[in-house]
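Researcher: Batch entry, complex prediction.
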Amino acid sequence: MSLLGTSIIGASRGNGSKVTTHAINPATGEKLEPAYLGATSEEVARALELAAAAFPKYSRLSGKERGAFLRAIAGEIETVADEIAARGPLETGLPEARLRGETARTTGQLRLFAALAEEGSWVDARIEHAQPDRQPLAKVDLRSMLRPLGPVAVFAASNFPLAFSVAGGDTASALAAGCPVIVKAHSSHPGVSEIVGAAVRRAAEKTGMPEGVFSLLYGGGRDVGIALVEAPQIKAVGFTGSRSGGTALMAAAAKRPEPIPVYAEMSSINPVVFLPEILAQKGEVLAEGLFGSLTMGVGQFCTNPGLVFLEENSAGPFLAKLKTLVEAGAPGVMLNSAICEAYHSATSDLAKKKDVAVLAKAAAAPGQGQGSPVVFQTSVDTFTADPELCAEMFGPATLVITGSLEKITAAIVDLEGQLTTSIHGTDTEIAQVDDLLAAMENRSGRVIFNGFPTGVEVCHSMVHGGPFPSTSDGRSTSVGSMAIHRFARPISWQSAPQSALPAELRDGNPSGIWRMIDGQRGQG
Amino acid sequence: MSLLGTSIIGASRGNGSKVTTHAINPATGEKLEPAYLGATSEEVARALELAAAAFPKYSRLSGKERGAFLRAIAGEIETVADEIAARGPLETGLPEARLRGETARTTGQLRLFAALAEEGSWVDARIEHAQPDRQPLAKVDLRSMLRPLGPVAVFAASNFPLAFSVAGGDTASALAAGCPVIVKAHSSHPGVSEIVGAAVRRAAEKTGMPEGVFSLLYGGGRDVGIALVEAPQIKAVGFTGSRSGGTALMAAAAKRPEPIPVYAEMSSINPVVFLPEILAQKGEVLAEGLFGSLTMGVGQFCTNPGLVFLEENSAGPFLAKLKTLVEAGAPGVMLNSAICEAYHSATSDLAKKKDVAVLAKAAAAPGQGQGSPVVFQTSVDTFTADPELCAEMFGPATLVITGSLEKITAAIVDLEGQLTTSIHGTDTEIAQVDDLLAAMENRSGRVIFNGFPTGVEVCHSMVHGGPFPSTSDGRSTSVGSMAIHRFARPISWQSAPQSALPAELRDGNPSGIWRMIDGQRGQG
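Model: Structure tokens for the complex:
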């Protein structure tokens, strides 16, 4: 397709404001055509009106109809996979293979949510029958299920131009729940966003969805984004990005006349603890694993292992191997110049810290837009005394922290909330560190044993969400099928005639879903 | 028991600050002994420390152990039912029978949550097995379940001195989830709070719970409350009370370095719509039903029907009967002088409004601390034009609004969020008002057919929560078993050895709960 550079507002295209932006090739600094025109405030208002108008209709479609829409989106994205693979590397610096893999992950994710909507049991349908003769009071017929919240604003991420972007997990889970979606495109990859947004539109038209079910807005500054969060039509927000961006949206949402939930996935440094016996047994293998996790995608993952805790006595071979790997490590093009500059600034700040040493850094100097692997080292006492050592360095950098197990445990207890915590140990070692495991559980959403935090499986049991500030709302996940619950709320129907009930709550279970009837679960 | 007038801080009693308060008998204005001593800031800090220390232990108890604690609380409360029945009417103006009934509701609620914890399936356990040979990437073993958030602060309500107070629904659901609880007593019924708080303590000691699992704090102003909400140890808040109180807690929680969820149940005017055919068929019976719902408990329920919508043409007999009932209605003692004054002020403000008429008011003049039934009437055009007509009048007052079905539907669409919406109609009528039903669903947490909003069944399918401002978080309920989900978050364990997993996630299902295994639900 030829890129038009304009917002997609329901079935129409925006004309755009005079504020234009271009994608920049991070490897060269070169401007990429076309210019992208920010949405005007009238265009934002139009997208909001369309979404609000679509809600009553879209939210009352059956799960099978919503599933068909999601499958159509996946199919349409597959037809433009080559275009994505061509444009994506120019906009993001990511290799074609990664973009093709991420496209497959995205379509897989859309189909997971399609299956969830089609199967339908996620709504947690509950029926309690009337007991008119109950003493001292009659019991009424009461039936409940989850229903969608309303239109959702989704803020796309820079580091996953597909899986956490226009048709990524937030969009897929909100659409599956029954919520129309307005996406604010990320300025780093407007072209990929337009290709995917146009695919979503085609799917909406082919499956006869109401016009306002999906819009995609471009906007230079924060204006479009804040307008979306403040709009009365919007009932929830999904965001993946920086801590400052996420907390700004949280504050705006809390100040609304009607506060709304914000699901922001923001900042995590993903501590990895190595216990001494496993480190003595296979230090070099563990160093290879850590290095792979640290440098994958030039370290630009929210699950990048940014802190490494160990007792120094048995760590010699591990540290030596890690040093060798890092020194031989190659610089890589980062997603955009802002991320690259922030990475250089964060790592050079850390290098200046008293009592923080550079354990190893890549020998090759970084080229334009590139970041290089670097590993710092300090003591747990220094770490505990300086909160700045917990700042996220978004890129292939980590901080090795050495000290006693007791002090390591205390440091984990005091950490801010994390997406993940990881521990490496023999079975015997792990059986002896209950306090550490309790602290890891308490401070994160996913506890990993003898593995590394990168690699987030899209499935029913994934929790990609943890206590603040890793996410704004640690009661939720932004990856996996449980993500659908973010965009729904329970509603009860009391003494309703069958015709006024959603199919999921009717006698005879026409939807064939799992339900709880008078306290008993089953498919009846 | 003899009342001591001091906070219960773990296993100890507070000494209290110099700030004392007394319960006041609302029927007489008489001060009740003893004086209640507000908790000092040191005592608040001690309760917080104890709760934080209790969390790792209490949260890892089995559901059966937590269930035993909740059942012990119910049993201990039953042993002091006579004391509650003696003290309660003095503090609240509520009749003894109501307090005995509410005591039974409270112990029933505790046992419902005990059963939920003991049965254990509420944790939504999910297991996905590893697929080491999967292409292109191996799949890891991943297991998830809900785990408690941490210590919870509960703010007791004035209008349910038992069921929404010290050992009420918030406390029961938080304890069942695995969270220690610190209750801030309501100043209206300190004696009943102390009787119940002491019962909870005895239960904690008899079942060997960690000391900090429960504390009860008194405090005159908002200091103790705000200190609890701002404390880093507190991870969630439950509140039942006014809109101003609830929104103040929401703002304080949002401003914390680590924002936490606030579950505030605040303000609802519970519209009831009467369709013309049913009104023509049985107007007098419906007037009796409305009058009963309106005046129950002197109208001091969050589900009190504060708005009544109807088309005037067939409403003659209904309105005539309602007028007769209200004029013969008796004044009743309200919960405290602040509520009584607010009621008189709200109803006299409304009476002064241009275009709002008094349809009927009780003939007998209210005595000390009493409120009387009153019904106002206006047109839907006047109602729509004046947002002040939506203000809650906490007491036995309602506003009848007449107009066309189309305008009534538009007025419901534009309402703020409600706990409930109710509709009365014949089956034929209800089948023809899809837009109205969609608006009712969209604006409330419970949609009631041919019934009235008072009467909130404590069961699995109850939703007592709606869009803001009826509650702070319409994704939750404060009544019924789903309330437990407010105090938990999902956590994943990746590649964990069996010994490091909670029992709910182990192979062989030692807990015997419902789980989802590789996408399939079952008890295996």
